[in-house]
Amino acid sequence: MTRTTARLRPDERRTQILEAARRVLLADPHRELTVELVAAEAGVSPALLFHYFGSKKKFQYAVIEEAAAEVVLRTAPDPSLPPDEQLRTGIRAFVRAVLEAPQLYRATLLMSAAGDPEIRALHSDMRRVFSQWVIGAVAERGIEITPVVELACHGWQGYVEQTLLVWIDDPTVSPEALEHLCEQSLDAILSTT
C-alpha cells in the first residue's frame, strides 16, 4: 500500500525520514537499516530519500548523528541526584540506548574503526562527552582525578563498548544483568587505581 505524501519543506521531510528510520530501528532492533525499509516506513520512494540525503552513506551518517545526539541527551547527568545515582542512571541510559538500536551502534563502531572520518569524528565526540560526565561524576564521589584515574575511565568506556558488541551478537544474559555488569565494572576498574 502506497501512502500519499504531503508536500513538506525540506527540513520537515528530512525529519520525517529520520523519524521513520527510528521507528524501523525500534520495531526490530536487530534488522539491518536499509534505505528501502526506511523509505517504505516514511511513505516515500527510495529516490526521494536519496534526494534529501544525497547518498546511502550520508543517510547513514544523518541517522547515526541523530542517534548520537539522543544518547548524549539521555545520558547527561542529573545534578539533582547524588553522584552514585548520577553514574548509575547515566550508565543504564547508555546501555538502554544501545540496546534499542544495536545495529546502529554496531555500524557506528565498525564504520569508525574502518576509518570513516565523519563517523570517527562523531564517535570521538560522543565518547568525549560521555567520558567527561563519567569523570565528573567520579570526581563528585570524592575520588581524586589523577592521570591514572582518567585513563581508567577511558579504558572502562572501551570495555563497555566491547561488552555491548559481544552481547549484541550473543545475548547470553538479561539486559538488566548487562546494565549491572557495566555499572559494577567501573567500580572494579577504579578500585585498582
From TrEMBL:
Residues 34-53 bind DNA. It comes from the Bacteria. Signal peptide: none annotated. Residues 11-71 form the HTH tetR-type domain. Keywords: DNA-binding, Transcription, Transcription regulation. The keyword Transcription applies. This is TetR/AcrR family transcriptional regulator. It comes from Kribbella karoonensis. The lineage of its organism: Bacteria, Bacillati, Actinomycetota, Actinomycetes, Propionibacteriales.
